[in-house]
Automatic annotation (TrEMBL), chain A:
It comes from the Bacteria. This is DUF4974 domain-containing protein. Residues 175-269 form the FecR protein domain. The chain crosses the membrane at residues 85-105. The lineage of its organism: Bacteria, Pseudomonadati, Bacteroidota, Bacteroidia, Marinilabiliales. It comes from Carboxylicivirga mesophila. InterPro entries: FecR, FecR_C, Ferrdict_sens_TM. Residues 314-382 form the Protein FecR C-terminal domain. Pfam families: FecR, FecR_C. Keywords: Membrane, Transmembrane, Transmembrane helix.
Automatic annotation (TrEMBL), chain B:
Belongs to the sigma-70 factor family. ECF subfamily. Keywords: Sigma factor, Transcription, Transcription regulation. The keyword Transcription applies. This is RNA polymerase sigma-70 factor. The keyword Transcription applies. Residues 121-171 form the RNA polymerase sigma factor 70 region 4 type domain. CDD domains: Sigma70_r4 (cd06171).
């Protein structure tokens, strides 16, 4: 048995935790040799234990640490703390250069090809938490802690953020979900957040004052925790906002799209535009705003279509091809070009799983015989059937 | 490993190589590693030198460890190897050539030494969780072995207060370390 696991076991035993298995392992360890047996006996002898503790406690870790910092010229506050940034920078440079080489190789080798192999993989669960210029990957394998002036702010385990709600200072956190990714997490008030590819959510921890305020960009589904004393406000791009009191809704507001869509699933929300227009939304309603001229339309819809992405589906009913392809491009990390502008306004219906290879979805669109695709590396070209 | 804070710190350190996480790791293991080194060297100053040396090396050149508990084993292995080499130098023997990151194995004696160092840390951690005054009184009584009157004089409190603080410390520790203190409840408190 590993000595460290065994040590933990003995401590557990001393603390009085009842654990039959631990007890059995300990008994077994005692019988291995006399040194083990003596240890257990000695530690129960108050005089011997006192002597050992005295030696243990004679080592001064504070003094030693100060010496360590001085000898290794470690400035406590600034210089070392810059190190993570430098490391992040070098990783990014590396990725860019690798990306560049790959792109170069791809363009060298690959000739435009018809849809044959299913090679383009869907996105995965993946996000980055940015706090005070530091980036932390929110993937399943990362366990880390966030501290500010040696105060625990939050810990990250298995890709989830666990907040310390007793913090004394306020810190701004940003969760960024890149292209080809999605991510789900919980805010400190218990509100659940689903984020689609290419989205950003920014919030303060703890929330400022009596308003739970977050900034959102891209496509986000929110299941807001009920708290009548603290309204929940989502600030959207172009200074529009949504005020909530406990509800479920989807908001799609990508900066590179003119139409920003809010769909209310449950509860009620007050939608506020930057020019003072307000709309009280009811469940089942879709509010579309054209960000170029602030035109607003509210209509009743089947909400499932708009929140299907969070259930792992792509559902489009009679949507413009350009809008469909934009979602696919974000999820599969591809770019889309059109052989003819007319194609963008063709309407299609799609109902597929998000975790299929892109090629399978494209094949379904090809069945209509209105269009066909050619793939050149990560570029999808949409062609019109003659 | 006992404490989640340390596991968090190790993970964070592996990721960011930051001083703040390293400090948590340092304070967590320092006394245990010194105690362990002292078992070999029977000289507390040299033991502290060895441990400082090990931490300096880890800071300069972080080993590639796959999981937090590996770092713990690695630290102990580094301390052991340096202690053995110091002893061999004194005896004019050839030094060990060791690859510390390879499979780390412990013989029976070493295992007990590690277990002792690790267990003492956790017992001490329980003592350090006591309320401030109770902790002071307990340490002066149990570790420094002062008599009640001496403790009262040193802390400028009455002998009765000393008794109260002792009782409090004892009852908390009895709860914290149930199996340890149930057997030594008769000790001179």
């Amino acid at each position: 048995m590993d000595v460290f696991k065994l040590s933990a076991l003995i401590v557990k035993y001393l603390r009085g935790t009842r654990d039959a298995q631990a007890q059995a392992k300990l008994e077994e360890w005692k019988t291995i040799n006399s040194a083990n047996r003596n240890f257990i006996e000695d530690i129960r002898d108050p005089n011997l234990l006192g002597e050992e503790l005295k030696v243990y406690n004679s080592f001064d870790s504070n003094k030693a640490w100060d010496q360590f910092v001085i000898t290794n010229k470690l400035n406590r506050n600034s210089s070392i703390y810059m190190q993570p940034l430098l490391r992040v920078a070098s990783i990014i440079v590396l990725l860019i250069s690798i990306g560049g080489v790959l792109y170069f190789l791809n363009t060298m080798r690959e000739q435009p090809q018809q849809l044959t192999e299913s090679s383009i993989q869907p996105g995965t669960s993946n996000a980055v938490l940015v706090v005070d210029n530091h980036s932390i990957a929110l993937s399943d394998t990362v366990n880390t802690v966030l501290e500010d002036k040696s105060e625990l702010i939050a810990s990250i385990s298995n890709g989830q953020i666990n907040y310390n709600n007793e913090v004394s200072s306020l810190l701004e956190m940003t969760v960024k979900v890149p292209i080809k990714s999605e991510y789900q997490f919980v805010l400190s008030d218990g509100t659940k957040v689903w984020m689609n590819a290419g989205s950003t959510v920014t919030f303060a921890h703890p929330f400022k004052g009596n308003t739970r305020s977050i900034k959102a960009e891209g496509e986000v589904y929110l299941e807001v925790a009920k708290d009548a004393t603290r309204p929940f406000v989502v600030e959207l791009p172009n200074s529009n906002s949504i005020e909530v009191l406990g509800t479920q809704f989807n908001v799609k507001a990508y900066p590179d799209e003119h139409l920003h869509k809010t769909v209310l699933v449950e509860g009620s929300v007050l939608w506020k535009s930057n020019n003072g227009t307000e709309r009280l939304m009811e469940p089942g309603q879709l509010l579309t705003m054209n960000s170029s001229d602030n035109w607003i339309e509210v209509k009743n819809v089947d909400v499932n279509q708009y929140i299907a992405w969070k259930e792992g589906l792509f559902v489009y009913e009679g949507e413009r091809l350009e809008d469909i392809m934009r979602s696919l491009a974000r999820w599969y990390g591809v770019t889309v070009t059109y052989q003819d502008e007319v194609i963008k306004d063709l309407h299609f219906s799609v109902d597929v799983k998000r975790y299929e290879h892109l090629n399978d979805i494209l094949k379904m669109l090809e069945v209509t015989e209105k269009i066909y695709f050619t793939i050149n590396g990560s570029e999808i070209i949409v062609n019109k059937h003659n | 490993m006992e404490s989640d804070t340390v596991i968090h710190a190790i993970n964070s350190y592996l990721l960011k190589h930051d001083l703040r996480s390293f400090k948590v790791i340092y304070h967590h293991f320092y006394k245990s590693l010194c105690f362990f080194a002292n078992d070999y060297l029977s000289d507390s100053d040299t033991a502290e030198d060895v441990v400082q040396d090990v931490f300096t090396q880890v800071w300069d050149n972080m080993p590639e460890v796959s999981e937090p508990s590996k770092l713990q084993a690695y630290l102990y292995a580094m301390v052991r190897n340096r202690c053995l080499n110091r002893i061999r130098t004194q005896q004019n023997l050839q030094k060990y050539q060791t690859n510390e990151i390879q499979e780390i194995a412990w013989d029976d004696d070493e295992s007990v030494r590690i277990v002792k160092a690790e267990v003492l840390r956790e017992i001490m951690a329980s003592i350090e969780k006591l309320p401030e005054r109770a902790q002071e009184v307990f340490k002066l009584s149990y570790l420094t072995q002062l008599r009640e009157q001496e403790i009262a004089d040193r802390l400028n409190i009455t002998v009765n207060s000393v008794k109260t603080h002792k009782k409090r410390a004892k009852s908390i520790l009895k709860d914290e370390l149930r199996h340890l203190f149930s057997l030594i409840s008769i000790f001179h408190l």
